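Intended use. Records like the one below are meant for learning the mapping from a protein sequence to its folded structure. Do not use them to infer anything beyond what is encoded.
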Amino acid sequence: MPELPVPPHFDPARVGEVWRVPYEERAAEAKRWAPEHGVLPAEDDRFRTCLVVVDCQNTFCTPGFELFVPGAPGDSRRLCEFVYRNLGRITRIVPTLDTHQALQIFHAAFLVDAEGRHPPPFTLVSAEDVERGVWRAASPEAERHLRHYARALEAGGKYRLTVWPYHAMLGGIGHALVSAVEEAIFFHSVARRSAPDFRVKGTNPLTEHYSVLGPEVTTGPDGEPLDERDAPLLDQLREFDAVIVAGEAKSHCVAWTIDDLLEDFGDLARKVYLLEDCTSPVVVPGVVDYSEEADAAFRRFAEAGMHVVRSTEPMADWPDLQAAAIA
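Structure written out for the chain above:
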């Protein structure tokens, strides 16, 4: 199917704003749009494509919100346009939702120093810091878990425990999808009769959960399970002929989701496509900049066989995709 025009309701100038999606209007438009442009129900797809939209929430993507990623508004605009232009090619959309409350291991309220002060945002907490008492759990009963967690996190070879600003708070405006992205997903679901598969992550207060496919630490100090890998989602993704990944942030939740995909997919890595112009790293000027880590991760993914592509390129021109679709 050729690329489609972007529907007239889409206003790129409003991508950085929060507003209510007019569901009834969009549903009626989507039902008309599909037959007018030859868009069939997703169940008729011979070549099945899944779009994983990682954490395109106000908390990360909308200016003025808690953990705003500077490149996110442009990413969101291009992502919406990609969904509309490829409405007939995308079989299912899997949006993920980072979901937190105040008392979680990576929020300031969980930790205190010797004087009882909470750490400022973006503090890095090492296992040595915890052992020396530079930082300890605000609740004494959680101290043993904190020590175990800091050691386990560093043993896994990823970032140290990071104190993030309060973000993606369950029930808050920051937790919601970017309005324009929500609208595009809603329009797709009606036009293609394909319900989005929302995946909630990050609710366990005792572990970080960057990747939608699993937490950073899976067990507590006595081996008790904290959370587990999302095996049903992995099984679902394996069934698609192509898996496309976009969202925020490139340096954290996107990179670690892709890393988990790579570990599980192995030789199937070639059917994964990374929209490099629909994702940006965490950058807080004068505080932190994870651009180099994000770019290094994407180079590693490409070397492993995944395809780094741009949303503005026709999908028909993506490497391996046309041959696979014909086969």
